[in-house]
Design a protein that fits this description.
The protein has one domain. Helices cover about 70% and strands about 0% of the residues.
Length: about 230
Amino acid sequence: MRQSAFPVRRVIILCALTLLSSTAGAALSLASLSNQDASSGLKAALDAGSAAAVAKLGVENGFLNNDKVKIKLPGIVEQARPLLKMTGRGQQLDELVVAMNRAAESAVPLAKPLLLDAVKSMSVTDAKNILSGGDTSVTDFFRQKTATPLAAKFLPIVKSVTDRSGLAATYNGTMSQIGKTGLVPQQQATVEGYVTDRALAGLYLMIGEEEKAIRRDPLAYGSKIIGKVFGSLK
């Protein structure tokens, strides 16, 4: 599969270069960044990064073939898997796993406009918090701004896909009864709710992993400029 032209790891690279160009030769620090430097530079970078994350996951096998984000059976079903296989449900369980991951892959492209809207709404304070934050400050920003509206957008798409699995309706019916006892976590009460939760987690994870990598070792990307910029932010 062709990799996106703007891999997520270039998110911070682009940001660094943009910020550097506006501080030409000056010692870089958060205090020295103008409002325009902090906001416009990061906006351009996060636009590219969010698009890259969506492009990696929102394709066939984007979730299913990626062990870091692959959606497995809900815990209560996984525990019952041996018994279900004995009753001839093994193939249906496998089909449910595929359906869940296909549902996530179908829903993720819906994230792109909301992620871009989040970037457009980014304040100067948001920008400086991202630059001075920890290894997941970009991820935390996106999660805070988009998790709730994305869940609302993902859910009907996910349901339309998972409903095709013969076990989805059975699972939802069973969980409806067990849920009254309070023994089932809310995010596992329905297949579509569970997949929506896991799809969002996978999206944020993919952004966060690349963000941490470049913050951890910027010199590994072959640029003294990047090392200087991110070294000063540690």
